[in-house]
Amino acid sequence: MSFFLTAGKRQIDLSSPQCMGIINATPDSFSDGSELVQNSKDRFTIDIDKVLRRAESFLEQGASIIDIGGESTRPGATEVSVTEELNRVIPIIEAIRKNLDVCISVDTSSATVMSEAIKAGAEFINDIRALSHSETLAVVAESNAAVCLMHMQGQPRTMQRSYEYNDLISEVYDFLEQRVAACAQAKIDSTRLVIDVGFGFGKSLQHNYQLLKQLSHFKGLNVPILVGISRKSMIGGLIDRPPHERVAGSIAATVLALENGAQIVRTHDVAATVDAIRVHSVYKQA
């Protein structure tokens, strides 16, 4: 099954899987926040030139979407104010839109941030709360942005302390089906929707691999599947390596996700992921 995803004025061809590169504008990011900061001891301020170089590199390596995040959603993460989130992401979105031709995604659950990001040039909303917060459905409905609806049990600060499922696959599927239906009711066309089963968001190691193994089940929702596996604890918990040494494990999991129907791969490691996508695509066509 193949799709064209509508994202703003773009039609993204998903007949071959696409790569989404991550740029985190957060001080506690385990990947790039500290690498992209200005040399200031007073406050956390992203260096726009460094961000542009990172974005340019992602495009050269084969990414078609760049995902900008201003609030960490890792387990135990601290919430930030809407003002701080806006200060982190809007200058980045504006700079990338001015300088590069690429689909820009914003990783947020705030209606205000969504609205301002779309005005600044974002064409994709990546929401870990699946448009459940106040006004978010309306903001997306009034735009032509694509949106990714993710499953999460609990909240980022506490989601890995306690989780319980009677039937993991059915419960995740039913939640996503309900959110897809909510989007339809809000007049958000299905060609703008993507779903994400939420690896690492209120799931045990076993839950994550059960979802990975049965990812093809979610094709039943008839919208593209995005996966975010890159460098997560579901990899580190198996191989006992710090985040920057989890690339090989992440790529192995990515190939399994592709085999089971993933059409967008969100990653910190664009070049390696694009290589994996290309090898898998030729394998499937052989």
Brief digest:
The protein has 286 residues and is α/β, with parallel strands linked by helices.
CATH homologous superfamily name?
Dihydropteroate synthase-like
Just give the CATH class. Alpha Beta
Beta-strand portion reads 15-25%
Q: What is the residue-averaged pLDDT?
A: 91
Strand arrangement within the widest β-sheet reads 8-7-6-5-4-3-10-9
Q: Give the total of domains.
A: 1
Percent in helix: 25-40%
CATH architecture: Alpha-Beta Barrel
Q: Secondary-structure blueprint of this entry?
A:
Blueprint: E1 4-7, E2 10-13, E3 18-24, H1 48-61, E4 65-69, H2 82-99, E5 103-107, H3 111-120, E6 124-127, H4 136-141, E7 146-150, H5 168-185, E8 193-196, H6 205-213, E9 226-228, H7 233-239, H8 247-259, E10 264-267, H9 270-285
Helix pairs in contact: 1-2, 2-3, 8-9
Describe what this molecule looks like in 3D.
It is a single chain. The chain has helices at residues 48-61, 82-99, 111-120, 136-141, 168-185, 205-213, 233-239, 247-259, 270-285; strands at residues 4-7, 10-13, 18-24, 65-69, 103-107, 124-127, 146-150, 193-196, 226-228, 264-267. The protein is α/β, with parallel strands linked by helices. The protein is globular, with a radius of gyration of 17 Å.
For the structure shown, list the relevant keywords.
single chain; 286 residues; alpha/beta; TIM Barrel; eight-stranded parallel beta sheet; two-stranded antiparallel sheet; 9 helices; 10 strands; 39% helix
